[in-house]
Write a structure and sequence with these properties.
CATH topology: Rossmann fold
Structural class: alpha/beta
Keywords: Hydrolase
InterPro entries: AB_hydrolase_1, AB_hydrolase_fold, AB_hydrolase_sf
CATH architecture: 3-Layer(aba) Sandwich
Organism: Rheinheimera muenzenbergensis
Number of domains: 1
CATH class: Alpha Beta
Number of strands: 10
Protein name: Alpha/beta hydrolase
Strand order of the largest sheet: 1-2-3-5-4-6-7-8-9-10
GO molecular function: hydrolase activity
């Protein structure tokens, strides 16, 4: 079954896997690019990236467990299980090689996916995320516990309003605030809790040396965790570069879509060509250089 997406050329097919349904967007042709959304978000929030990337690539954006239109999860799960979901989807689509772009939660899943299927995953783009919670700073740990408390006391709708207001505080971003808050409020509460706890347990820090594939890390200058924390783990990766996106908070693909797309297109143009790879370096987009 294909579900049409209003205002978008993509369709959202359904993949039945382990007694659950996984919905995903698919658009374009060519080399495969998988987009992994953040916590409380969904595949449709990648629309600005899908519109641009699908002109050159076959772009897939999946709804994770309990997000968007995918089935909720009654039982706890790990980040590696979310990665296994995505690998099953790639196999279902007969994709043997893929570039992966992950934002926040999606970045953590992307790390796990690259370790799970190194022969399939050819490159990573990690947006405002990291290889473990501790690397991203103690503030993020407190934020996870705060979210659990708000859900318990006030519910998902109130949490969506609180987080949305922090992500999109400017008056010009009210449409983004409404889009995010509406989707997050509709996220299955049990799946959201399970995902928060999976984030708290997640760590691939000790395995960074195994990740020899090209990796681009995009860091918002006003993200929850400082740029320095991303720069530190980038140094531990064999083949990675860090780009700082100016005037952005955590939801960089939404609040700075043009800057995000520019970096994605530039990186993908290098890594999808056989025999080409990035070199270890760090640049800044409209800002200072970080070494």
């Amino acid at each position: 079954m294909d579900i049409p997406i209003p205002g978008c050329e993509a369709t959202m097919p359904v993949f039945n896997y382990q007694n659950r349904s996984m919905h995903y967007l698919q658009q374009g042709q060519g080399e495969a690019v998988l987009l992994l959304h953040g916590l409380g978000s969904c595949a449709e929030h990648w629309s600005a990236q899908m519109t641009v990337l699908s002109q050159h690539y076959r772009v897939i954006a999946a709804d994770m467990r309990g997000h968007g239109l995918s089935s909720p999860s009654l039982q706890p799960f790990s980040m590696s299980q979310l990665a296994a979901d995505m690998l099953a989807l790639l196999r279902h689509l007969n994709i043997s090689r893929c570039q992966v772009i992950g934002f926040s939660l999606g970045g953590m899943v992307a790390f796990e996916l690259a370790l799970l299927a190194p022969h399939c995953i050819q490159s990573l783009v990690i947006i405002n995320s990291g290889p473990q919670l501790a690397v991203q700073g103690w503030r993020l740990t407190l934020l996870l516990w705060f979210r659990l408390a708000v859900i318990r006391l006030l519910g998902m709708r109130k949490l969506a309003q609180i987080i949305g207001a922090k992500l999109f505080p400017d008056t010009t971003q009210q449409h983004l605030l409404a889009l995010f808050a509406r989707q997050m409020a509709a996220t299955d509460v049990r799946s959201y809790r399970h995902t928060l706890r999976a984030i708290g347990r997640f760590s691939v820090q000790s395995q960074l040396a195994r990740l020899t594939l090209p990796i681009l890390v995009l860091a918002a200058d006003q993200d929850y965790s400082p740029v320095a924390s991303k720069a530190a783990y980038v140094k531990a990766l064999p083949n990675a570069e860090l780009v700082v996106i100016k005037n952005s908070r955590h939801a960089t693909p939404l609040d700075q879509p043009a800057a995000t797309n520019k970096q994605l297109l530039s990186f993908l143009a290098k890594v999808v060509q056989p025999g080409r790879s990035t070199t270890s370096n760090t640049i800044a987009s409209g800002g200072e250089q970080h070494v």
